[in-house]
Design goal:
Elements lengths: L7 H8 L4 H8 L4 H10 L3 E4 L5 H15 L3 E7 L8 H9 L6 H10 L6 E5 L6 H5 L7 E4 L12 H13 L1 H5 L2 E6 L2 H10 L5 E6 L12 H4 L1 H7 L7 E4 L6 E5 L2
Parallel strand pairs: 1-2, 2-3, 3-4, 4-5, 5-6
Antiparallel strand pairs: 6-8, 7-8
Helix pairs in contact: 4-5, 8-10
Length: 254
């Protein structure tokens, strides 16, 4: 049986087993039917830029991303990948037409990602927080584990916590259901929970959670921070330490 004899529904299911680079390089420009499937009907592109070659990264960002951006369901970028260092900076430069207009182009790009459900960007500059906070109405899963929401001038705890509250009240914060983020105190965690009205799961590593920093902390201290949080959260909340992720807490809300 020839591949082209398959119905469109089966071809679209088949596309899910390819990486985005493989998919576009294998089927793009074979004929008008495949082009229509790729750039119109397929709505489940997952852009994971980890361990991608620089050439493929550039081709995908410049040639294909503007065409498929409204069909992308997940986007994953990191500056600390061994094979693709400074990936976020490269991404911003590739999707922007000029350096002077970079923020404007990035805002347009993300606003056009109508199907974007999952967004993971680690080690990004704090100057981009306002852009991403107010973009994409569809994002439900957000990974900002290495993002520092606070600015350097925020020296006191109340100012830092207020920044977390502002993030929780942003469009992205309100719609988010699953969040992974670093915090500095229990007040920051409570500010997020209080303002993120749709949050279901929160993963966080908190600076004031002393148990994660020392192996010799007594077992009684292991749950002290958790009990502190529980006293201020709804009784239906479940808080556990994440196995395999040192220092991470997992908070479930029902």
């Amino acid at each position: 049986m020839k591949l082209e004899s398959l119905p469109n529904e089966l071809l679209l299911d088949l596309f899910k087993y390819f990486s985005t680079v493989q998919l576009l390089r294998s089927f793009n420009d074979l004929n008008s039917r495949f082009n229509n499937l790729l750039f119109h009907d397929f709505r489940d592109y997952h852009l994971d830029f980890r361990s991608i070659s620089r050439d493929n990264f550039k081709i995908l960002c410049q040639q294909y991303l503007p065409v498929i951006i409204d069909q992308v369901s997940s986007l994953r970028l990191a500056n600390d990948d061994d094979d693709s260092p400074q990936q976020i900076d490269l991404f911003f430069s590739h999707v922007s037409s000029t350096d002077d207009n970079a923020d404007y182009d990035l805002q347009i790009l993300l606003n056009e990602a109508h199907c974007l459900y999952s967004l993971e960007i680690t080690s990004w500059p704090s100057s981009l927080i306002p852009l991403v906070k107010n973009t994409s109405k569809s994002v439900r899963r957000l990974d900002l584990r290495q993002l520092t929401i606070c600015h350097q001038q925020d020296s006191n705890s109340s100012s830092r916590t207020q920044n977390y509250r502002k993030f929780g009240c942003s469009r992205l914060g309100i719609q988010c259901e699953i969040l992974r983020i670093a915090t500095e105190s229990e007040a920051d965690i409570l500010a997020l929970v209080d303002t993120m009205t749709n949050i279901r799961v929160l993963y966080t590593t908190c600076t004031s959670d002393i148990w994660k920093y020392a192996d010799n902390v007594s077992s009684s201290k292991k749950f002290e921070f958790i009990e502190l949080l529980k006293s201020s959260l709804p009784s239906t909340s479940i808080i556990t330490r994440v196995s395999g992720l040192y220092g991470f807490l997992q908070l479930w809300f029902r």
